[in-house]
Structure formats: structure tokens, C-alpha cells
Amino acid sequence: MAKNFLLIKVLLLIKLLNAHFTDDWTFAKITVLTSEINYSETNKLYQNVRTKNQFECFKLCFKSNECEFLEYNENNCSFYDSLAKNNKTLNGNFWYKVAYNCFGEKIDAKNKILNSFNPTVINLNFQNICYIKPFILRNFTFLIYLLIRNNILSFLQANTFIGMDNLACLDLSNNKIDTIKSGAFNGLSKLIFLGLQSNRLKYLSTKSLSGLTLLRSLDLSNNMIEYLEKNTFDDLISLRYLTLSSNRFNYLDAEIFLKIPELIHLNLGVNNLKSMDLKFLKKLDDLYLNNNQLTNFTTNLTSIKYLYLNGNPLGYLNYSFFESNGMIPSLNFLNIHNCQLESIDKNAFIKYKNLANLIIGKNNFKTLDYKIFDEMNTTLRSVSVDRNASYITNITLLYPWIRFNLMA
Length: 408
What we know:
Shape: elongated
Radius of gyration: 27 Å
Strand content: 15-25%
Signal peptide: 1-19
Keywords: Leucine-rich repeat, Repeat, Signal
Helix content: under 10%
Order of helices and strands: HEEHEEEEEEEEEEEEEEEEEEEEEHE
Low-confidence stretches: 3-23
Pfam families: LRR_8
Mean pLDDT: 85
Number of strands: 24
CATH class of the domain at 19-99: Alpha Beta
CATH topology of the domain at 19-99: Hepatocyte Growth Factor
Distance between the termini: 82 Å
Oligomer: single chain
Largest sheet: 13 strands, parallel
InterPro entries: Leu-rich_rpt, Leu-rich_rpt_typical-subtyp, LRR_dom_sf, SLRP
Structural class: mainly beta
CATH architecture of the domain at 19-99: 3-Layer(bba) Sandwich
């Protein structure tokens, strides 16, 4: 009887230690044969706690976005976000998060789905793919386009795309990706476009995008990201186009953009931003800040040509609204549609010497000063206003060279 009870306890403990806490992840012990880890030069410990057992240690690691690896030894539980390959990490006490299971198509050694494609383009869209085994694509050295959108991937492991030395375009949009492991994009030194929009990302580690030094366009829109580390984009020194719209940002530190000064297009629309500091983006042409919580806009930018502030609670627009930021000489397009504006000062646009297109519809003002466009007789060509506004007739007669687009 005692032996049976002991056996039951052992079986329960084994079940606990092998339990997974999401549909996709469990832990595996690190050995000399482990190939799914992106090793670093040193072990980086960030937390050490005492736990009752190994199971509790695993649970704590799963709750942390930063925990990539753990060490458990006699109730001592240590979390690491990077490991070096040495005698210590191979001593049998170290574990790492690993894919557990998924229900769908798996790209692994047994899968024949890759056999029918040409050498430069692989289209895996709408294939119900849930898993890509690391190193499995290493022989596709001449591949340029890899399309894996509209599948059910939930994670990307280290070395998933290793060996694809000439890949230029990687589209992973419309999946269920919530985890990008450090080193997931190892080997993609020539990647130019990366599409990660419409996934379930809440967090990016500082090494999620490491090594993508030639990347020019990154789309992270329509995720659930609330926060970015200051050095998230540090390796993306060639980046020109960045889309972060439709996330959950309340704040973005200015230093996030420090290492991507060549950026010319930035979309931060549909977030919860109340202020912005973009002082490091001296070459920015297009800036989308629509549908945030901005009540004013000030920044040291002189290059912006297209500015979208529509859908923000601005309230009032006067001469000094943009004056301090030095960007007026270059502005060509301004959208302040639906900004709860009560009035626009007659001198608000006096220094907009290059403004050609203005959208001011769906605001709360009843009238516009008839001199509002006097200083813009050589540049302003198009103004979008409310169709039923009482001031329309007088304004259109005064400025016959401007095309007034009437909005419903």
C-alpha cells in the first residue's frame, strides 16, 4: 500500500514537472545537444527567488515576459534573459522555454509542404501553419520572398529562419504570434521588409529584432503592445518606415528612436498617447498621430511634410500652436479633422508657406475668420470643410483659387 502511494506521488510530480501552462510552451532541460537556444557571451541573471518546488519556479518564469531561461537547484530559482554555453549551463540545472504542441500544420522534417515552390518565392499563406521548426529552412539560401500570413503561428523560436541568407521580404501578418524569442531572425542579414501586423504581441524583448541591420520597413500595427524598451530598435540602423498604429501605447520614450535617425515615415495612429518627443527623427517626412489623446503638439522637427493629427482633442488652434517646433516651413499636408476645435485663430496658418492641402472638417466651430487664408495665396490648393457649415459661401467667394471639398 505504501509503495503504491509513493508511486502515485512520483507520477503526480512527474506530471507537474512536465506540465505546460499555455497551449504552446513547456520547459526543456538544456543539454549539449540543445540547438534551439540563441546563446550569448555571458549569463545575464535578472531575478533570484526561493520557491517550494520546481513547479513553482516554472510558474513564475511563465508569468514574466523577460524570463527566457531558468536555473533550479534545491529550492533556489534563478531567471535569466540570456545564457552563455559553458559548463555551468550544461550541468543539468538549466531549463529553457520550448514549443510544446500546436494543432495545425507543422513545418518540420516530415512536412512536404515546401517541396513544390520555386527557388525565390515561397507562399504559405492560409495553410493553417502553427509551428516552424528551427533550422528547417536552412537550405533555402536563394529565397527572396517568404509569405506566411493568415496562419495560426503563436511563437517564433531562435534560429527559425537561419540559413536564408538572401531573404528580402518576410510577411508574418495575421497570425497569433505573441512571443518572439531572442535570435528568431538570426541569419536574415539582408531582410528589407518585415510584416508582423495583426498578431497578438504585447511585448518585444531588446533582442527580438536583433541583427536586422538592413531592414527598411517594419510593420507592427494592430497588436497589443503597451511598452517598448529604449533599445528595441537599436540594430535597425537602416529603417525608413515604421508602423506602430493600433496598439496600446500610453507613452514612448524619445530614446526608442535614437538609433533609427534615417526614419522618414512613422505611424503612431490609434493609440493612447498624450504627448510625444521625436527629437531624434530629423529626417521624418510623414507623421501619423491620428486618434490619440493629444491636446497639443510640440517637437523639434523641421522636415515633416505630411502631418495627421485628426481625431485628437486639440480644442483650439492659434498662431503659436506649431510655432515653437520649427516645422512650419516644410509642412505640405495637415489633417486636423475631428479635433474638437472650437475656433481657429485668423493668424493660425500665417507661416505655413508650403501648405497645399488642409483638412479641417468635423470640428465644433460655427464660423471661420474671412482672412484666415490671406497669407497662403500662392500655395494652398485644397481645403476640406463641412458641407453644411454656415461660413462656406463667403469663404469660397473670397478664395477662388482654392478647391473646397465639402465633407458630409
